[in-house]
Amino acid sequence: MPLGNKPECTKCGTRETPLWHSTDSGNLCNACLEDERNVEASTSSKTDEEDRSGSLKPRRSTRITRYCNSKATGPHRVVPKGKGRRNLFKKTPVKAPTATATPVTSNFVFYKGTYFQVGDIVSMQDVDGGIYYAQIRGLLTDQYCEKSAAVTWLLPTMASPSPEEGFSPETYIIGPEEDLPRKLECMEFVMHAPSDYFKLKNTPYPPPLTEKGVGYIWTTLRNELALSKK
């Protein structure tokens, strides 16, 4: 500026100030410029307080406004979840089916070192110490692996020796059959015998022979005699 010409503040009109400031609106004195700065600082602090209190809506991210179209037409598609670890563990557990008892019937079992089969003669003792003999009619294994046998009682005759002395099969006759099986732990093995040994002696009409083979399983006395003669 020309020497000797003092500028004038466009806001307050003063010509005396320790420092002049040139702005877009004109020359400002130092006091007016400080006032403007203080006003701007107070305005910015109020804006920050309003943002913290939540009165103003939060500004959306540039990425969201750029890639998300809020005015898109059509129904919103739901993307199914994948089979991740979180999704798998959040599923409702499926209960296992209820266990059912499945007893198994057979013609022979192995129990405590003894081979039991249909037709075997076993002995049983009552609470008073009396010994009784029976023939195994069928074998059963339950779901707990407990083995039982359905028996047919054998009745002694006048020619039978005392039960304590032993068992003589030719002197016994067939007796009543039990429907409920008894556990094998109550029985003691005596001898093997064909399954129809006592029935053939008591029936006037022997049943027809349908089984084949050597041994006592699924066989008859007549079949064993015929094979032994050969």
TrEMBL record:
A Gene Ontology molecular function term of the record: zinc ion binding
Subcellular location: Nucleus
Protein name: GATA zinc finger domain-containing protein 1
Main location (coarse class): nucleus
Keywords linked to the UniProt accession: Metal-binding, Nucleus, Transcription, Transcription regulation, Zinc, Zinc-finger
Gene Ontology CC terms, in alphabetical order: nucleus
Region (Disordered): 1-26, 39-61
Originating organism: Pogonomyrmex barbatus
